[in-house]
Amino acid sequence: MADLLNQIIPDVVARSDQLWQAFWQTIQMVGISGAISLVLGIPFGVLLFTTKEGGILQNRAVNFILGKICDFFRSIPFILLAILLLGMSRLIVGTGIGVTGAIIPLLFGTIPFLGRQTESALAEVPAGLIEAAQSMGSSPWEIVWRVYLREAVPGITRGVTITIVSLINFTAVAGTIGAGGLGNFAVMYGHSKHLPQITWTVILIIVILVSLVQWTGSVIAKKAAH
Amino acid sequence: MIRLEHVSKRFETGKHTVEAVRDVSLHIEKGKIAGIIGFSGAGKSTLARCINLLERPTQGKVIVGGAELTALNEKQLREKRKKIGMIFQHFNLFASRTVYGNVAYPLKGSGRSRGEIDQKVRSLLDLVGLADKADAYPSQLSGGQKQRVAIARALANDPEVLLSDEATSALDPDTTRSILRLLKEVNRTLGITIVIITHEMGVIKEICDQVYVMEGGQVVEQGDVFHVFASPQRAVTRKFVDSTSNLSRIRELLDDPANPIQLLPGDYLLRLNYLERSTSQALISTLSRQFDLDINILLGNIELIDGNPLGGLVVIAGGGHDRVTAAAEYLSERNVLVEVIAHG
Question: How many CA atoms lie within 13 A of B115 on its CB side?
């Protein structure tokens, strides 16, 4: 096996330690910012949806502000967002490079995205269910917890899946401006040193990673839908 | 039990104002089954939602079980709503919860222990005849079963009132009947006051004590079901009453180009509407003998409403103007309303 790999992709085998390290950096970036995104992005989406006109926590001002913030960050291409947030990253986590430095830009890229995904997942919950819950005396927060978040599990799971897939893409982009990880590895060796084997290997790994995430997400969403 | 005083509900959408409910006052006594009937857009669903304040009236007072709901704050209102169950046309069951989970939903936070909740859910599922479906998900049930689960859920907090918003409109006739029977049973055994919103007069006929007919946001006719059926005053009410009988088919027969009804000179096409316990008399034979008429029955529709026979006949009476007029007078004295549809 090792021999075979050595024959096909000698450039990669020679740098397997760095590849391994880059892979772990990517996993760390996706894991940490993914986890934080879930914790912040889903509530963000809940607020985006429920404060809308006719929503159970209707609040025009809050909805307007959240919507604008969301659209602002969503409209900036991630590479520019990452550059823009370098300073902020230094301020908050003390560094603008490496895995730690990448977290802040990644969060700003994914939270608004997951927020909108959550919003549209909640919009799919039939209005009749909310009416039924209200008729049974449920409070707005009870409806959020016991109806929206529960009924929307399949939709939110799909949203989270898409978010993690784009997060993997974002980490590769962040890699090009010093965040480390697979993207950085591909740029440093594949692009700068003209080693196409490296680029292709990294692409293959990312494709497998994305497929795994997508498959897991689909299985969970399917299981949650009755 | 339920008292509405001058309730109005306006919806403002941009420049348009829709007055869905206009100055409705009504009083439904405890333990009664009241029907609110109207065509779509008549405001009946909005009116029902005004009873539990899912729609807050723009004007007027809503009093349920002695408490003025329109004067309560949100928190007090939520407590009160637990005593007003509601079921819907599209069932509105939680797809992510099992039958058991759906029925248990309103019991959480009611101060009951796990064991008490379990006991309550089991007894409710027994009541609606779905004890064996506790672990099924709504998507695995038929429409009638879904509505039974919804009824069990609506009854979980022992409500005083049950609102039924077109609850049988998505069901086939057999299932409709079985759901209505269940509602009647719930009314009888638990003493719950039921308000039924429907556009089907058959539903009203089947189980209601009183009926309110709505048109254009207003209650245009009301009374006990027998009287409204027996002598509908408004055109809309007549339409609903006709919809449950085949007597109105006579119009179609008259319009039929094949001309299936042939009237000879001196023949009168009459519609006889039986009011007030008049069916027990042998009217047709009496007419035939006493007024020397030839009577041909074309259509007949007699049914029991609230234990009283009600309905009518469409007949051709032959014998000339004078004899038919005399017969008609005889009939009106015996509480049979005579309507001349056509004559030869």
Answer: 0
Contact between chains at A138 and B96 (C-beta distance less than 8 A): no
Q: How many residues in total does chain B contain?
A: 344
Distance from CA of B68 to the nearest CA of A (A): 16
B49 backbone dihedrals φ, ψ, rounded to 5°: -70, -20
**What's the structural domain count of chain A?**
1
Distances (CA, A) of B337 to B23, B105, B165, B263, B272: 33, 53, 34, 21, 6
- Which CATH code fits B2-243? 3.40.50.300
Q: Packing angle between helix A98-123 and helix A153-174, nearest 10 degrees? A: 150
CATH number at residue A58: 1.10.3720.10
Measured between beta carbons, the chain B residues lying within 8 angstroms of A153 are 96
The β-bridge partners of B5 are B61
Task: Tell the burial category of A54 from Cβ atoms under 10 Å away from its Cβ (0-12, 13-18, 19+).
Answer: exposed
Residues 32-91 of B with CB under 8 A from A: 52, 54, 75, 78-82, 84-86, 88, 90
Please name the residue of chain B whose CA is at the shortest distance from the CA of residue A136: B82
User: What is the pLDDT at residue B64?
Assistant: 96
Section A45-74 average pLDDT: 95
* C-beta separation of A213 from A161 below 8 A: yes
CA distances for A145 relative to A110, A140, A153, A158, angstroms: 23, 9, 11, 19
Instruction: Give residue-wise pLDDT tens across range A60-93.
Output: 999 999 999 999 999 999 989 988 888 888 888 8
pLDDT at residue number B279? 54
Within an 8 Å CB–CB cutoff, is residue B169 touching chain A? Answer: no
Distance in Å from the first CA to the final CA of chain A: 44
Indicate whether A146 pLDDT > 80: yes
Q: How far apart are CA B3 and CA B114, in angstroms?
A: 36
Predicted ipTM > 0.85: yes
Chain segment B146-157, per-residue pLDDT in tens: 999 999 999 999
In CATH, what is the architecture of B249-343?
2-Layer Sandwich (3.30)
What confidence tier does B278 reach under pLDDT thresholds 50, 70, 90?
low
**B158 part of contact set with chain A, CB < 8 Å:** no
